[in-house]
Write a structure and sequence with these properties.
Elements: H1 2-24, E1 26-32, H2 39-54, E2 58-64, H3 67-78, E3 86-89, H4 93-101, H5 109-114, H6 117-120, E4 130-131, E5 137-142, E6 144-146, E7 149-157, H7 158-163, H8 172-184, E8 190-191, H9 197-208, H10 213-221, H11 229-244, H12 256-264, E9 270-274, H13 278-284, E10 290-293, E11 303-305, E12 308-310, H14 318-328, H15 331-339, H16 355-369, H17 384-397, H18 402-419
Helix pairs in contact: 2-15, 9-11, 9-17, 11-18, 17-18
């Protein structure tokens, strides 16, 4: 019996020591929503392995999320004990600005100096990191840090263009003429997720062809009732394009992945979407040459610095979160991002050997140097992403006229502007 008692005591002590050991091991939680095949997904996974190797005494826990999850429930997650230590979060008034104004994020001003981020990024790179007490971008503390850029463009099948005797357009008129040429050959020119992100991005791109500096600043800053004229032009143009067959009527119920598949399978010569597709397209398109052209507007393109690394107010490890941000902003991983086909925000272009990444980084610099980042159409108003998707669907399906479309999105916008 004594021997059994001694064994029980030894076993209990071992179990207690194991329990204490586990209790003492710190857990650091990282979330992001980039797909594994995207440039960010590929590069951040490599950075994650380095981070784990540097901290063998820490349980580094990564969870893959989706954009839709955080778009719909981000505020509730950040306001709970389930929030991670650092996560990727969508930038803009309606998302990062909203949760910052609700006190759900950590002020990163001290880390900007401590980690030297202000020596790597210029003030323009911090525009979407700063939010005031109302959650409006452009001023106030730094609540998040972006380590990449992004912009919406038109991906095109170079082989199909060459066969049709076409070059990438430099004006809207040339773009329309190219679509007509494809239509005459029996090819629907533009693949589009009409009820998804690419639908509203095309709509905003067309609106920017009629937008000046004041309109963009007022719109994104929620500084005035909505002047609907640029959107009226955009909405009517899309209705016309569907009527002319430039956009398939089938696309009126299509989401982005299905539209992207039409392009990557060689069935559609063009697809409007963002640079977040670059890594995936580079790895999946094998049967034809492809490229991208900036949608021809006078100045503004739909785009911005990328999503933000934010640190929840309840983070137990803010210093480690700052170290993680610095790692993904380092020259090593900025160059790797470009070589994976992404758009690094602070890379030495000479260190990028991948022509896709080098071109994307150069185009982003071209747009940002002329202050041509017009941002995204859903940013000004919380919940506007879903509003625009819903109203876009009505527009593409014919249940809303262009005038009704503008009237309905204006009502939501103006209500938010009056109540801020």
């Amino acid at each position: 019996m004594k021997r059994i008692a001694r064994l029980a005591l030894a076993l209990g002590t071992a179990m207690l020591m194991t329990s204490i050991g586990h209790a003492e091991q710190k857990t650091f939680k990282i979330w992001w929503f980039e797909e594994p095949t995207t440039a960010q997904g590929i590069v951040w996974k490599k950075a994650l392995e380095e981070f784990k190797a540097k901290h063998p005494d820490i349980n580094v826990s990564f969870e893959q999320k989706t954009f839709q999850q955080l778009q719909a429930s981000g505020g509730m997650i950040l306001n709970s004990d389930q929030a991670p230590d650092v996560l990727e979060y969508n930038k803009g008034n309606a998302t990062a600005g909203l949760v910052a104004s609700q006190g759900l994020l950590t002020n990163l001003d001290a880390y900007v100096k401590k980690e030297g981020w202000d020596k790597i990024l210029n003030e323009g790179d911090f525009v979407l990191s700063r939010y005031d007490e109302k959650g409006i971008y452009g001023s106030g503390p730094v609540w998040g840090v972006s380590v990449f850029g992004e912009y919406v463009s038109c991906f095109y099948n170079i082989d199909m263009f060459e066969k049709a005797g076409l070059k990438p357009p430099t004006t809207l008129e040339e773009w329309v003429a190219g679509m007509e040429a494809f239509k005459q050959k029996g090819v629907t020119p533009l693949a589009l997720g009409a009820i998804d992100t690419s639908g509203q991005h095309l709509l905003a791109s067309l609106a920017y062809t009629k937008a000046d500096d004041a309109w963009v600043q007022n719109y994104q800053g929620l500084k005035a009732p909505l002047d609907g004229a640029p959107y009226l032009y955009a909405a009517q143009t899309l209705v016309d394009w569907v009527g002319k067959g430039y956009i398939s009527k089938d696309s009126t119920g299509m989401k982005d992945p299905d539209a992207a598949l039409l392009f990557t399978s060689g069935k559609a010569p063009m697809y409007v979407s963002g640079t977040w597709n670059l890594g995936t397209f580079a790895s999946t398109i094998k049967d034809f040459k492809w490229g991208q052209f900036v949608i021809p507007t006078p100045k503004y393109s739909v785009g911005s610095t990328g999503n933000l690394w934010v640190v929840p107010k309840g983070s137990k490890n803010p210093d480690l979160a700052a170290e993680w941000i610095s790692l993904t902003l380092s020259p090593k991983y900025q160059a790797e991002l470009g070589n994976a086909g992404g758009v690094p925000i602070a890379a030495d272009l000479s260190a990028i050997t991948n022509p896709i990444g080098k071109n994307a980084a150069a185009v982003f610099k071209q747009i940002s140097d002329k202050n041509g980042l017009g941002f995204y159409p859903d940013w000004p108003v919380p919940g506007y992403y879903d509003v625009l998707n819903q109203k876009d669907t009505g527009l593409f399906q014919g249940s809303l006229t262009a005038e009704q479309f503008v009237e309905e999105i204006k009502q939501v916008y103006d209500d938010a502007q009056e109540n801020q």
